[in-house]
Amino acid sequence: MTASFIEQPYALYTPEDHKSWSMLYSRMKPQWEKYANDQFLKGVSTLGLRPDRVPRLDDVNRFLRPLTGFQAKGVAGYIPAFLFFDCLRRRAFPTTVNIRRFDQLDYLPEPDIFHDIAGHVPMHADPAFAEALVRLGDCAHTAAHMPAESLTSIIRAMARFFWFTIEFGLMRSKQGLRVYGSGLLSSHGEIEHAIKSPNVQRYPFQLEWVINQGFAIDHYQPLLFTVDSFDHLFSLVNQLEQWMKQGKLSHVAPGEPGINEQDIKSFQNGAQ
Questions:
Q1: What are the contacts of 54-63 at 24+ separation with CB within 8 A?
Q2: pLDDT at 2
Q3: What is the CATH number of the domain that holds 113?
Q4: Which of 84, 141, 217, 235 has the most other CB atoms within 10 Å of its CB?
Q5: Domain extent for 240
């Protein structure tokens, strides 16, 4: 079973859609220059994202695929957890094709094409980061063969790991802390808050803490974790898989995120 990709219905984007992209991009660009990690900035430049129009996925992939093998592949919306991770293993990134309305620029609970293309995809141009994503896909295949009674806990642990790294991760650099998490890289307000606010607790990444740490999606994150490099991130994914095999993910703390039946079944089907 694999994810169902769709063609990007580019002709259906309206002038207001392009206006939303343009406004989002123009607001984020100076924030990226101040707070984003160097690999992300290089990725934005390499992919040639236009500041004035919603990008065509085919154009993005023309630049991206030769670098790391990754491609942005259109999806209509949510896909079950195992299928998402399996896409990463195959170097395909499920990309939402819709864009938020102009009157909803500051917050959208679901991903849109700006979050996915401007937040995630520039990182996929970096080979070390790309390999960490592929390893996360490998972890999902390992999880699919774990005992059924452990699946809910393991999926929760993997979701927390993804949240505090790929979505909301910070990295140490010679210039100080920099952002590499896409949830921050696509948020005009939170990217600065994550780096500068005294209300945010920032700690070196500790796997035991992260897999037991719940989170809420409807406000700025009060707790963030830092890594040293993408090689460090890769090693943490390896450790996550080792702990999974040792049973250390089978009884993580309850709480957010909730794991739905569709996600559990996707892992069970992934073992077949």
A1: 54/10, 54/13, 54/17, 54/18, 54/21, 54/99, 54/113, 55/21, 55/113, 55/117, 56/8, 56/10, 57/8, 57/95, 57/97, 57/117, 58/8, 60/117, 60/121, 63/125
A2: 67
A3: 1.10.800.10
A4: 84
A5: 10-257
- Tell me, yes or no, whether 61 lies in a domain: yes
pLDDT in tens, 208-233: 999 999 999 889 999 999 999 999 99
Higher pLDDT, 206 or 107: 206
The enclosing H or E element of 187 equals none
C-alpha dihedral, 139 to 258 to 229 to 107, nearest 10°? 140
Q: Is residue 269 part of a domain?
A: no
Helix/strand number for the chain, H first, E second: 12, 6
- 0.70 exceeded by pTM: yes
How many domains in the chain? Answer: 1
Give the residue numbers marked as catalytic.
115, 120, 167, 186
Lowest mean pLDDT among 49-58, 106-115, 126-135: 106-115
